[in-house]
């Protein structure tokens, strides 16, 4: 009866407002939080006891609150009959749940009442907020209680516009330690993306654990449309540590295809939300990374410190480091550095969006490689000259919405190896596909130009479709060209360069119009103008160069022409000059005229130039009114001889008529006729300037070849060794060789070669033949330059055959050596070597051997036949005073007269500044003569001992007569010893008397 009455009348009694307080206390005990019911309350006992309340507010500490449209509380009937209330199920319709973060009490805040064994709660279409996290349209089933005070929830919700399935479990919420916690969130309609958390929630509301995010390729495309073109599976792991003010992410690792990112982050909640990210990554598409950053900054402000590598629009970025600040209104790089191809370093600081504007810097050691790699991103960029050197520049850059690039306050820093080491300027570039309109001004401290760089610029300006049009002005305080020697530092050749030009559009033929170009070269002034179209045609090009002293100016021209510097510093250039050049015509046949005046020298040329193949062909003329004055101005006064040029080259003018050429690094005179005073030579000369040191070759024929004095020859040889040149003249001929007006040889044919060698340069002169003193002279002389500690070396091999002995004696006499040769012919040979740095040193170190031979030679100062006759007469007719008279006669015969010998055989050694006779013997019908001794070159002293053995027909044995010659080489004294001959006479007479007595 009691149960029936309760079932019939209980709901009516409880549903009234006069029981509202008791019911709120009942609900508060069940929920564990203050419950306030503002709407109607109903209780039904059948089929199961259920309490329904509308417009319910469930409070909590520190601002936690739940509002719900309908609250349903299912009660267990058994305990209810026994007078106890036990809730079995809690249902909330359209709840709005707000929980503070951190949770007051941490895990304790989630713990169900200790007396509640279990509770099954459901949320239908609710909104759940805990701190900054918001779940919309949440449909959750929540279980509580159990021996471990478990909170378990599962269901569905919406994150923004993305559906998600959620599962949450918190264990042991009522214990003293942290409560273990697991959570899993599956995103998308197909739940292809999984976000999971495993960790613990402490009573101090500290949440710690491991985050794992996994998404396949399709899920990534759905969640992030920016990645559709390069979608790949995504996997992220990391550690989370969250408190009331900060959520820290440690050891975060993300794998996106082949891209790998590692880092950490922190989400600050107070005083305002801010996400700080520190990340390192490799193999990233940095364009996609920027799009993701834009997506994040639309939700929460970001401060990111990134250290990544990857690509941007196909351009590889070896390394990029950026400190970026971003929110929903702006994106700014506090600092950004990136390593571009070619090891270039790009720096930027300023706004990145929606339009870039800020300070930039670029350090490019190989700009050619960098520009080539950036062309896919900036197609209007031209190719950069590979030889231009490094680029180091900074300034301000603004990128407009239409793609216009404005570069202001440009400043290039000093770099000694760069073609453009330091500069200032500004430019405005408006791109249109692969073309651009440009207005620029560049002010350089120094500009270094070489042939390759000039060729590169010419090719760029000759494009049939020019990349640029507009005005350009370039100034340079100094203009330099590289040294002729590879690796040498360039020297300043010009100052105050000004180029005012305009780049023409393709519609009017392209190319460049130089309105004015000017520069100071040394003390000279250069002026130029002209128009060069893209097809290579030159219209109205004019250049004028003049100055009071050509030396400094010609230094620059020598470099441009590839000539050695010392040619341009010659004393002949220390006088006024002018050069005028005019050019008109097509690129392959440019007609030019050149006129040069240098002092009294006038030169003219009319070459046709092929700019495509870099060739020059045309006539050259040169004339000077006085040949002797020209030689003096060229520094050749020592070549003029003792008669101040009257003997050689003689009075008259100097002129040259030739067909000149320059093709592919080869230049020369293919056919020339030159006159110098009374002399005329002809032939051809070629100079190879293409590879390595210049090489000069050719063939020359001269009617008269003048030989300068030995010091002049020595100086010329040393200058040639230090020139770095290579010379090869296989055939040189001269009808007559003169020395100071005297003919010393005829019909000479020889060759000349100068090479640099592996260790040291050397000059080799090979004399094939020359008619000298009635004989034929041939030989070879080699002069090798100094190398390290080894001094210069001179080696000489010579052979003179059939020379007149009297002429040889005459030449020796001019060098201070008296030779008693008066007739016949002689063959001479020499093999000598010397070392040193001067002619005197060569004389001191001269060493080698000398040979002489003859088949008929007459010696003066000796009558060997008379000696034999006198000795024969002395032994045939003895007389008491005969030996004394014989000795007197012998001395007279050994000091005068002549003797002819059939054979001569002589060898000598030179060393220690001494010529030593190793063997010297003469033989003939009159007897034999042997010599021994030496010639001291240092003291000019001769010391010889002669042994004469005359032929005596009356005797089988022959006495030896001794002569000593000593003293100055030009006038030595002599001493004759005939004692052996007198003794021989006595012996012969004694033998004769003994034989007669016996008989």
**Average pLDDT taken over every residue:** 80
Radius of gyration of CA atoms, rounded to a whole number: 56 Å
Main structural class: alpha+beta
The helix tally amounts to: 17
Uncertain segments of ≥5 residues (pLDDT<50)? none
Terminus-to-terminus distance: 208 Å
- Count all strands and give the number: 56
The biggest sheet amounts to:
56 strands, mixed
Portion of residues in helices?
Answer: 10-25%
Gross morphology is: elongated
Q: Which assembly state applies to the chains in this document?
A: single chain
- Strand composition percent: over 45%
GO biological process, one term: regulation of protein targeting to membrane
GO cellular component, one term: plasma membrane
InterPro entries: AsmA-related
Keywords:
alpha+beta; 999 residues; AsmA-related; single chain; 56-stranded mixed β-sheet; 17 helices
Structural overview:
Among the domains are: 2-194, no CATH class; 857-998, no CATH class. Helix 15 (864-876) packs antiparallel against helix 16 and helix 16 (882-893) packs across helix 17. The chain is elongated and about 205 Å long. The chain has a 56-stranded mixed β-sheet that branches. The mean pLDDT is 80. The chain contains 17 helices and 56 strands. Helix content is 17%, strand content 53%. It is an alpha+beta fold and 999 residues long. InterPro entries: AsmA-related (IPR052894).
């Amino acid at each position: 009866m009691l149960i029936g009455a309760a079932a019939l009348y209980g709901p009516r009694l409880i549903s009234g407002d006069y029981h509202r307080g008791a019911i709120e206390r009942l609900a508060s005990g069940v929920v564990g939080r203050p419950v306030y019911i503002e709407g109607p309350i109903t209780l039904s006992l059948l089929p199961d006891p259920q309490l329904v309340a509308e417009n319910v507010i469930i409070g909590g500490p520190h601002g936690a609150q739940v509002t719900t449209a309908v609250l349903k509380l299912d009660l267990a009937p058994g305990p209810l009959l026994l007078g106890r209330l036990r809730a079995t199920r809690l249902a909330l319709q359209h709840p709005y749940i707000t929980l503070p973060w951190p949770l007051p009490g941490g895990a304790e805040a989630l713990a169900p009442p200790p007396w509640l064994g279990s509770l099954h709660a459901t949320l239908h279409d609710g909104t759940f907020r805990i701190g900054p996290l918001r779940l919309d349209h949440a449909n959750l089933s929540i279980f509580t209680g159990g021996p471990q005070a478990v909170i378990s929830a599962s269901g569905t919700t919406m994150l923004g516009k993305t559906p998600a399935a959620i599962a949450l479990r918190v264990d042991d919420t009522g214990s003293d330690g942290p409560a273990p916690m697991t959570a899993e969130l599956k995103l998308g309609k197909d739940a292809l993306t999984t976000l999971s958390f495993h960790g613990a929630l402490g009573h101090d509301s500290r949440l710690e654990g491991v985050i794992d995010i996994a998404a396949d390729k399709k899920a990534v495309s759905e969640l992030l449309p920016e990645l559709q073109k390069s979608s790949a599976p995504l996997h992220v792991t990391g550690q989370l540590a969250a408190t009331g003010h900060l959520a820290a992410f440690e050891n975060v690792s993300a794998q996106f295809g082949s891209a790998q990112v590692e880092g950490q982050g922190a989400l600050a909640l107070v005083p305002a939300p801010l996400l700080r990210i520190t990340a390192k990554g490799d193999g990233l598409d940095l364009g996609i990374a920027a799009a993701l950053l834009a997506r994040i900054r639309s939700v929460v402000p970001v401060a990111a410190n990134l250290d990544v590598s990857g690509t941007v629009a196909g351009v590889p970025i070896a390394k990029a480091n950026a400190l970026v600040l971003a929110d929903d209104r702006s994106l700014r790089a506090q600092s950004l550095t990136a390593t571009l191809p070619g090891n270039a370093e790009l720096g930027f600081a300023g706004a990145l969006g929606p339009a870039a504007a800020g300070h930039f810097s670029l350090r490019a050691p190989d700009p050619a490689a960098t520009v080539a790699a950036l062309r896919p991103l900036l197609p209007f960029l031209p190719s950069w000259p590979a030889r231009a050197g490094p680029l180091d520049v900074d300034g301000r850059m603004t990128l407009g919405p239409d793609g216009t690039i404005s570069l202001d306050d440009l400043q290039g820093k000093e770099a000694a190896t760069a073609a453009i080491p330091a500069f200032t300027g500004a430019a405005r570039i408006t791109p249109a596909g692969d073309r651009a309109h440009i207005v620029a001004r560049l002010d350089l401290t120094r500009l270094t130009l070489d042939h390759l760089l000039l060729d590169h610029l010419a090719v760029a300006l000759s494009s049939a479709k020019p990349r640029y049009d507009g005005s350009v002005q370039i100034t340079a305080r100094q203009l330099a060209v590289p040294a002729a020697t590879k690796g040498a530092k360039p020297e300043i050749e010009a100052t105050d360069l000004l180029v005012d030009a305009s780049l023409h559009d393709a519609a009017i033929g392209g190319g460049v119009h130089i309105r004015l170009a000017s520069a100071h070269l040394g003390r000279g002034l250069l002026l130029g103008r002209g128009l060069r179209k893209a097809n290579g045609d030159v219209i109205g090009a004019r250049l004028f160069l003049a100055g009071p002293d050509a030396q400094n100016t010609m230094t620059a021209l020598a470099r441009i022409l590839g000539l050695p510097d010392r040619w341009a510093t010659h004393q002949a250039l220390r006088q006024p000059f002018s050069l005028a050049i005019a050019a008109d015509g097509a690129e392959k046949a440019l007609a030019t005229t050149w006129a040069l005046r240098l002092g009294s020298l006038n030169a003219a040329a009319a070459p046709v130039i092929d700019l495509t193949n870099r060739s020059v062909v045309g006539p050259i003329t040169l004339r000077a009114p006085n040949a002797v004055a020209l030689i003096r101005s060229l520094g050749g006064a020592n070549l003029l001889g003792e008669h101040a040029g009257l003997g050689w080259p003689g009075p008259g003018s100097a002129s040259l008529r030739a067909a000149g050429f320059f093709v592919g690094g080869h230049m020369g005179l293919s056919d020339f006729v030159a006159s110098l005073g009374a002399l005329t030579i002809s032939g051809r000369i070629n100079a190879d300037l293409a590879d390595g040191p210049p090489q000069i070759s050719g063939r020359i024929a001269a009617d008269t070849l003048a030989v300068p004095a030995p010091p002049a020859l020595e100086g010329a040889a040393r200058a040639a060794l230090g020139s770095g040149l290579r010379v090869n003249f296989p055939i040189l001929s001269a009808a007559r060789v003169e020395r100071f007006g005297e003919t010393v040889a005829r019909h000479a044919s020889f060759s000349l070669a100068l090479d640099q060698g592996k260790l040291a340069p050397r000059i080799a002169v090979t004399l094939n033949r020359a008619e000298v003193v009635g004989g034929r002279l041939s030989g070879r002389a080699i002069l090798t330059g100094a190398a390290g500690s080894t001094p210069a070396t001179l080696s000489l091999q010579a052979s003179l055959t059939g020379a007149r002995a009297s002429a040889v004696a005459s030449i020796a006499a001019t060098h201070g050596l008296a030779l008693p040769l008066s007739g016949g012919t002689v063959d001479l040979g020499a093999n000598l070597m010397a070392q040193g740095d001067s002619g005197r040193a060569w004389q001191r170190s001269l060493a080698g051997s000398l040979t002489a031979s003859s088949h008929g030679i007459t010696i003066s100062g000796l009558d060997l036949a008379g000696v034999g006759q006198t000795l024969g007469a002395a032994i045939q007719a003895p007389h008491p005073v005969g030996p004394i008279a014989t000795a007197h006669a012998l001395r007279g015969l050994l000091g005068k007269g002549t003797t002819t010998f059939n054979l001569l055989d002589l060898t000598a050694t030179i060393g220690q500044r001494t010529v030593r006779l190793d063997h010297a013997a003469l033989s003939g019908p009159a007897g034999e003569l042997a010599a021994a001794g030496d010639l001291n070159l240092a003291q000019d002293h001769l010391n010889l001992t002669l042994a004469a053995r005359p032929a005596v027909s009356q005797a089988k044995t022959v006495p030896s007569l001794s002569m000593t010659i000593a003293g100055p080489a030009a006038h030595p004294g002599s001493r004759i010893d005939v004692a052996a001959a007198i003794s021989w006479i006595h012996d012969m007479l004694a033998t004769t008397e003994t034989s007669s007595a016996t008989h």
